[in-house]
Amino acid sequence: MATQDALFAIPLVTSVWATRRGLAAARRQPERRVAWTAFAGACGIAAVASLIAISALVGAPQGGRIGLYIGLAASACVLLGTLILAHDALRAKGPAAMVDQMLLAGVGASLLIYLLVVPGFARGDVLLTAVLTIDVVALVLAAAAAGGTAPTAVKGLLLGVVVTICLGDGAAAGSAAGLHFLPDAATPLLWGLASSCFAWAAGRDLELRPGGEEAEPTRRAAYVQTLLPLGAIVGYPVIVGAVVLATDGSRLAPVIFFGPLFLVSTAIAFARQAVMLVEQRRAAIRERSLTADALRRNRELEALTGLASTLTEVLDERPVMERGLEALQVAARTSSSALHLAGEDGLTLVASTGSWMTEHALAPLPAEVPDVATFELGGGGNVARLPLLARGRILGMLTLVRPVSEGCYEVERTLLGLLTDQLGVALQNARDYHEKLEAAIRDPLTGLYNRRYFYEAVGQEIARHERYGTGAALVLFDIDDLRDINDTLGNQCGDEVLEQVGRIVGQLTRPSDTFARIGGEEFGLLMPETGQLDALLVAERLRTAVSRHRVLGDRQVTLSGGVAAMPQDGTTREELQRRADQAMYWAKRNGKNMCAVASEAIASDTEAVQVGMLAHLHGVVAGIDATQLHTRDHSENVASYAVAISQRMGLADECIVRVRRAAFLHDIGKVAVSNTILGKPSALTDEEFEAIKVHPQVGETMLHHAGLHEEARWVGAHHERLDGNGYPQGLMADEIPLEARIIFVADSFEAMTSDRPYRRGMPVCEAVAELRRCAGTQFDREVVETLVGLVERDELAVLALRDLA
Hints:
By secondary structure, the chain is of the alpha+beta class. The chain has helices spanning about 1-5, 10-30, 35-55, 65-95, 95-125, 125-145, 150-175, 185-205, 220-245, 250-315, 315-330, 355-360, 415-440, 450-470, 480-490, 490-510, 530-550, 575-590, 600-605, 615-625, 635-650, 655-665, 675-680, 685-690, 695-705, 710-715, 740-755, 765-775, 780-790; strands spanning about 335-345, 345-355, 375, 380-390, 395-400, 470-480, 515, 520-530, 560-565, 595. It has 29 helices and ten strands. The strands form two sheets. The chain has a five-stranded antiparallel β-sheet. It has a five-stranded mixed β-sheet with strand order 7-8-6-9-10, sandwiched between helices. A hairpin with a 2-residue loop joins strand 4 and strand 5. The N and C termini lie far apart (about 135 Å).
């Protein structure tokens, strides 16, 4: 007994240490202050009890027993501390988090009650047994508190403290009841271990920041929740078997005592597992719901982000419409969608996504755009029709189709309305931007491009030439005598002339060309990848179209044009414009209503061509063609064919310019032929044909007098044949200039394919066959094959072909 009392020095020291650590933890962790204070009080009482027990060594024989009795107050403090922690766990985690630990603790508590508490109250020291009973209750509460929010290490150490106290006080109570399952010296040693564990727990809590806690790993928590109820269920049969084997008494008593506890624990364990399964099922459902909601919100965010980027980055209608449909497709999970814009002819499809081409039958267009969104459920899919509005007016309609399996549009209606509104705003902004942009680059009177835009286009073509070596042609037109029209008929008529000229020329240009009004009565035409002579032919057609159009009734409106090409006439805008201006003013000086290339204007200025003579010659030719209803374009078409043949045969540009002029003037000698003969609706007689034969000589003479000597020679020989049967001189083979042979083939091809007063034009294939049949006798074979090659490669527009099937 003396040895036991002396061992109480150990818990005396450890309890004092634990008391200090507990009070420090109470100050450090305010949320567990009361619990740590209670535990510190228990340690302080244990220190007093240990001191009293030691006093038995100095003359107090009952000191040890009194110290154990004082332990009742220490156990009460431990009970208070565990009760506070259990209450915090119940409030934070609920009763479900406490069941598993309490089931396992119940096994140990029931064993202590059966082995020590019941015998202790029956034949032992009642007070010591009461202490043990309090410890058992504290054990169950400590297990419940293990499911709380306190740090894991702290909860584990405190649970160990209570278990150690139960064992120590159980040793004392069992000894008093005559049950010596532990030696008497175990009580002070276990007390010392318990106070040490308490000190360690307080120290661990001191290391954490205020309010801090350790999160238990998820996998460990799952293992604990699975194994603890299993341990409780298995524990009771093991205990019953062990008790039956270890005792000689009635074997029915442990079964009667532990059997109901086993059944209750089993029922609670299975109920707990059922609750966990239900909770897991609910958690899975919530997770799926949250996942679906998160995916939906991600789609909505993606759609809103995509549309927002469209609003801020794109100002073109096409990308706005396409990105808007993509955003709606993401938000509404559609299988197809379409955007129809409202116009004068009703709704027009402008953009679609998905399988709209196969699903459009599911969503037929309504008679008119609905004022509000409509949603229909059909046999093949869910159809949503959303009006596209901006500034109170309808721009069009959005149609969305998605499978029936995706459900109706209830969830997405608000988002779809928002996206549709934003798309309407974006589309209207794009239209406003382009309207303002067009207003900035358009001439307000004619609607054509203005000077600034035209010069920017010229600059771009020059940059393309510098980078890729491509060519381009610049044509400047000027309306002849527009000032006189303004003075005599008024400015309103002058404005009408400008509008009509812009409309006529604009309809005849290519989409790749740029036609602009660059001055009062001056227009510019930029033709990318077009040579000088091709540009001249185009300019002549445009000039002719304007001159033949009744812009001012009986008063003819004409154009003069100048052509400059890059790179031969210049590689800067200033050079090209200056050369085109020179050619245009040369045309004006020579009588107006004509076009000229830059090189032609410069060469002609150095020749003895009388001022105004070319205009006079052009006027004569126009008059001759005009007297013959079916050949009014004859001279211009022959000039176009002659230029194409000359280019293919590799003639120099200066020569081709002359060939074009000669081809245009080749029939000028017909001025000496009677209009009766020229317009005769039947075949000519021999006398009439002899009268026609004089026109090459007359034309040659007229051109000689105009100073066009080379052109005169070619015109004079353009009806000569290789076999010598031509007229007027009967020249043969090489005696006939190549240029004259080219004009002869071009003239004959145009005559065969165009209508005449006495016959219809023949198909191109027959005309080609006729040229080849007469090649070598009537026509130059090389010239014929050159023309045929151009026709077969579709490099020559058959301008004279009219009214043919």
